[in-house]
Design goal:
Largest sheet: 7 strands, mixed
Shape: globular
CATH architecture of one domain: 3-Layer(aba) Sandwich
Helix content: 40-55%
Number of helices: 10
Bound molecules: S-adenosylmethionine
Radius of gyration: 17 Å
Distance between the termini: 29 Å
CATH topology of one domain: Rossmann fold
């Protein structure tokens, strides 16, 4: 763990909610990761399943699942992020149960879910992940799947860039809308062992953005798809070397 800096996470995300999706759309590596995650969700969750997104933000993943006939409960600690999600709900007319709720208070949800997700570093903003894991174990049915997409402790492209420039360590301040936000970086396997292993089996782990550094992808132009193709392969071989990791967990019986 690293970088307990301070801060009111909800307030910080309230400040960027209106611009959040537009900013993300400008980042091709984020688009690549989102496509990988959605392919993973499509393989895992099916029409009629009920899935909990416990750091839902503006609901990008919730809408993807709902459009495929999956029932979604979307929670987030930031009222403005949930307000953006609700605006999209009106526009898109999909049934998503959206609530302002901290992941640490999952025990207040009474339903049983077929699975749960957290993407784009939402879990790196949660201080008490063992508690969240325990509550998830109660909320997700045995055999249900939890997919976690978080910021990794070590990142190959960043370590290489830092070594070449003889500076910079991973784990500096995370800034959202210009404000510093407290965050925690994890090795995916250590995180699984420390918080999730008592309740969840590890089915699969892979890395994303191991080779696909944003600066490289921007410079690559038409070769960017080749970088993403290589990244996908290397990510399976080096699950703990990407900017992000994905853990696919199964609720123990
Ligand atoms: C970077 S955004 C990702 C949002 C969304 N998953 C996506 O992929 O676009 C991280 C989200 O986690 C939420 N978050 C942070 N800490 C949280 C907590 N303890 N409980 C619930 N949500 C939290 C933030 O409010 C923010 O909306």
């Amino acid at each position: 763990m690293a970088n307990l800096i301070s801060t009111d996470v909800a307030h910080v995300f309230d400040g960027v909610a209106a611009e959040y999706e537009a900013q993300l759309a400008r980042n091709p590596v984020a688009g690549y990761m989102r496509a990988e995650l959605h392919a993973h969700f499509a393989r895992t969750f099916h029409r009629g399943d009920h899935v909990l997104d416990f750091t839902a933000g503006t609901g990008i993943d919730a809408f993807f699942l709902a459009a495929r006939g999956v029932r979604v409960t979307a929670i987030d600690i930031s009222p403005a992020m949930i307000a953006e999600l609700r605006k999209n709900l009106v526009r898109r007319g999909l049934p998503i149960d959206a609530r302002v709720l901290a992941a640490e208070r999952l025990s207040e949800l009474e339903e049983r879910y077929d699975g749960a997700i957290s993407t784009f570093a939402g879990l790196n903003l949660i201080a008490d992940l063992p508690r969240v894991a325990e509550n998830l174990a109660r909320a997700v049915r045995p055999g249900g799947c939890v997919i976690l997409h978080g910021l990794n402790q070590f990142c190959l492209w960043q370590a290489t860039a830092s070594a070449l420039r003889h500076r910079g360590e991973r784990g500096g301040a995370l800034r959202v809308g210009g404000k510093r936000v407290a965050h925690f970086l994890y090795d995916p396997f250590a995180l699984w062992r420390a918080a999730f292993a008592p309740h969840f089996k590890l089915r699969q782990a892979y890395g994303l953005s191991i080779l696909a550094a944003p600066a490289l992808v921007k410079r690559a132009g038409r070769l960017a798809p080749a970088i993403f193709w290589a990244d996908r392969i290397v990510g399976r071989m080096l699950p703990a070397a990407g900017d992000f990791f994905v853990l696919d967990l199964e609720r123990r019986a």
